[in-house]
Amino acid sequence: MAVASLGEIIWVIGIVAWYVIRYPFERRARRVRIIAGGRSSSDTVGLASALLGLAILPGFYVATGIPAAADHPASAWSVALGTIIFCSALWIFRLSHKELGRNWSITLEIRERHELVSAGPYALVRHPMYTSFLLMGLGQAFLLPNWVAGISGLIGFAVLFLLRVDKEERMMLENFGSQYRAYMEKTKRIVPYLY
Predict the structure, then answer these.
(1) Among the four residues 20, 39, 49, 95, which has the most C-beta atoms within 10 Å?
(2) How many domains, in total, are found in the chain?
């Protein structure tokens, strides 16, 4: 099997695993009443950008090989590194969902009896789910030997992050006040000890 094909297969398995992790939390979240927040146009653009960059464009590339002009040589080391990074992303993604539990939402929402979560990955960063998306994008760049499909995940993540993180933090400050401010002082946004 060619190294490029192996990278594509690992990427597909990773995307399927991502959905398998998210689905039960998505189902449970529908049962908990929303008391504040909701989807805005910038939220929709951010989510659509992430979906386009982390799933649609690379999925189209894996299925068709288009745009072949943007291909570059695949290497075993890049597929190995991409696999490790993507698996790390899925691990953080799962831990984040598990720790959030009933507080989880795909959009910026405060749910009934919402609690501030600061354990598990939230003890190191305020937004570990964004950390997982960053790692997914990085893993994708190593797994898919195509400049467009490979890098699209990082671009999709960047758009989502830039459009949502400030709004999310404002919403948490409004809801939790000084408790969230103290939490912000102890943690970084998405990269432990750095940012």
Answers:
(1) 49
(2) 1
